[in-house]
Amino acid sequence: METTKLIGTKIRQFRKLRDITQEQLAEASDSTGSYIGKLERGEVNVQIKTLEKIAEALNTNVFAFFNFNSYEELKSQPWIWGCIHILSQQSEAEQNKAYRILKELFTSSEGELLVSKSGDSDANEKLNSQN
C-alpha cells in the first residue's frame, strides 16, 4: 500500500477513535470535509502544515500517522482496541489514572511488569496472586 493511503487510513482510524465526523475534523483543522475524505482515501498528498493541524485536532502528534505496524496488531485484538476507544473519550487526568491502575495491577512487588501468556503457569500464578 502506498504511503498516502497508509497515512489516510491512520487519519481515519484516529478520527473514528475520537468519534468525530470528517466535517468536524475539517472544521477543527481549517480544511473541508471533502478534502479530509480525499486524504483518508489516499487520493491526495497532504502538506506537513495540514498534517500538523489534523494531528492537533485529533489530539495526537504527526508521528502517530507514520506508525503503521502497531495499528495492525491492535486491530487484531478487539479488547485492546476497545480499551483504547474508552480511554480516548476520557480526560488526560482520567487516562493517567487508568494507566496508573493498570500499571499497579500488572506490576510485581519487585517492580517487574508481569507477562501472562497462555500456557505460562508461572506468570499466571503471579497474576492470580496479585488479585
A few lines on this structure:
The protein has 131 residues and is mainly alpha-helical. It has eight helices and no strands.
Report on this model:
- By secondary structure, this protein is mainly alpha-helical.
- It contains 8 helices and no strands.
- The protein is elongated, with a radius of gyration of 18 Å.
- Residues 118-128 have low confidence and may be disordered.
* Distance N to C terminus: 44 Å
Low-confidence stretches are: 118-128
Number of helices: 8
Please, what is the average pLDDT? Answer: 82
- Largest sheet, described in full? none
What is the share of helical residues?
A: 55-70%
Topology:
Layout: H1 3-17, H2 22-28, H3 33-40, H4 48-57, H5 69-75, H6 78-88, H7 92-105, H8 121-130
Helix pairs in contact: 2-3
Keywords, please?
131 residues
